[in-house]
Amino acid sequence: MSAAVTEKTAPSLRTGAFGNARALACRECGNEVELGPSYACPDCFGPLEVAYDFPVVTREEIEAGPPNIWRYKALLPVPVDIEQSPNTEPGFTRLLRADNLARELGLEKLWVKDDSTNPTNSFKDRVVACALSAARELDAKVFACPSTGNLANAVAAAGARAGIRTVVFIPSDLEHPKQVNSAVYTDKLVAVDGNYDDVNRLASEIAGEEDGWAFVNVNVRPFYAEGSKTLGYEIAEQLGWRLPDQIVIPVASGSQLTKVDKAFQELIALGLVDDRPYRIFGAQATGCSPVSVAYKADTDAIRPVKPDTIAKSLAIGNPADGIYVLDICRRTGGAVEDITDDEVRDAIVLLARTEGIFTETAGGTTVGVLKKLVESGQLDTSLETVVINTGHGLKTLDAVSDRVGAAATIAPTYDAFVASGIL
Ligand SMILES: Cc1ncc(COP(=O)(O)O)c(C=O)c1O
Ligand SMILES: [Zn+2]
């Protein structure tokens, strides 16, 4: 394959371009290759991920850092001067105690990690910030992605701020607000007639044909994926340097879930939190639930599906990290569960009316799965639980616009108000 960000650029990497990262290691066979624009093992074609030689990292050093993901820069594949390069500075989003929702669901202690407050209103700003750093260090000319929507928003915005050309590819049936949220930052939004898996295939082909393109979730995927670790670091730090007992995470490609686990493992290995058991649960929508189906069938064979769900941001029918999600959820004593589109809509309204948080369909899926896990007894209601809200409801307004609206339309008089029966 002709690597999109050419191999030629690799030798001129500046010292420390990837911080404390040591190499790219194969997740299947452990083989290590040089840091650069590679994403598949040359021996077994397994996926590569970043391996590190961490120095001693203290809580105090982290706490003295900026209120964004760069407070964890020592644990990311980014240079020590990362704060000097323009980026959207995502992260350090709020961790909210959700007592109303907890009461409603019968949980003792619940937190919502609300990533809808990131610069482009989804957790994707985290991964994109790391991918942008890699693209810069590799001297990429074009910053690009195939996307289910949120990633395109984040790439387009980060590219604009960094002054790098962006081209973002989305399925043409994507929610209108997500299309506008990309097109406002870039004049190169490409709508492809096909589903996400078709868009992803096209991106891989372009990456193979063209030089100088950094596709954030294709040829710089190992660097991109590390950004999701910051969700795990933040949750632990915001809990007072402690891991939660249980955490529910949405699954599309599965990258976010696997990186939260990696973050927890790193924090334990570095002595930044106590080693204790935690359970990780994955959430999918029934209309695109290949990982949940495999989990329930007790098999490792994930059969690709054609997505048919309102949770379009989770609509990846052939998830790259699905197998690792299964492994983590089984190993930690968690599970993978799915819910119907109607349950997704109900959960969006439930979260909004209990906690004042308007989530998109991905968050509806996650909260709805949390509810189902409680009802089926898979989740221990006496344990401390965190649920991640990964995106903002304004991006998927249509999902609930038929369900909610004015309770009454009245004339502007007191009598009309009384007659409306609202009181
Ligand atoms: C809002 C939202 N949540 C969750 C996900 C799932 O992320 P992953 O592909 O890392 O599983 C996505 C992916 O696009 C997303 O947009
Ligand atoms: Zn390998």
Global mean pLDDT: 96
- The general outline is globular
What oligomeric state is this? Answer: single chain
Number of strands: 13
Low-confidence stretches: none
Q: How would a textbook summarize the main sheet?
A: 6 strands, mixed
- Taken as a percent bin, the fraction of beta residues is 5-15%
Proportion of residues in helical segments: 25-40%
Structural class: alpha/beta
| Helix/strand order, N-terminal first | EEEHEHEHEHEHEHEHHEHEHHEHHEHH
What is the CATH class designation of the largest domain?
Alpha Beta
Strand arrangement in the largest pleated sheet: 4-5-13-10-11-12
CATH topology of the largest domain: Rossmann fold
User: What is the first-to-last residue Cα distance?
Assistant: 68 Å
Count of the domains: 2
- CATH architectural group of the largest domain: 3-Layer(aba) Sandwich
Radius of gyration: 21 Å
